[in-house]
What does this fold into?
Amino acid sequence: MYYDIDTGKVMVNEIQRIVKTGANALEVIGTAIFGSDTNYARFSETGDLSFVGTADTISKTDAALAIQTTSQNLTLQTVTGGTLAATAANAMELTGGANSKIDFPNFDVATTGNITVQPAYGLDTNAAGILALGNTTATTVNIGNTAATTIAIGAGGALTR
It folds into this structure.
């Protein structure tokens, strides 16, 4: 390992091992870059992690990976475009507190539990079968009790107010 004065870099020709002797195994004051000259992960002076070039993955293969914060917001976002995808090979669980909600342009679940969808779309089954509403615990099922003027029944039938 040597310092190259022309490039202003510490050059490493073989694997180097950093052994912890104090509180920190490695302390970098300033910005730390890990990878090649064009594709790398960068930790800024404030601790923010960013990726440059084709570097784009945080992975862990031997156990669970947790990204968490204590009493602060955790935000995942695409800034100017792109898709935010969450995929699970097994079961996926979304869990939130009392004020959780889902807010999309054409589908919403309010903190009260009220579900709304865009006009001309609604609730259906993803294959042939029964669509069961209120079969388990509901004592009353209201269908269009405030603003509906027509309730359409399949095969051309309709109930009009």
Observations:
- The CA atoms of residues 59 and 65 lie 8 Å apart.
- The two ends are 85 Å apart (CA to CA).
- The chain has a mean pLDDT of 84.
- DSSP finds no helices and ten strands in the chain.
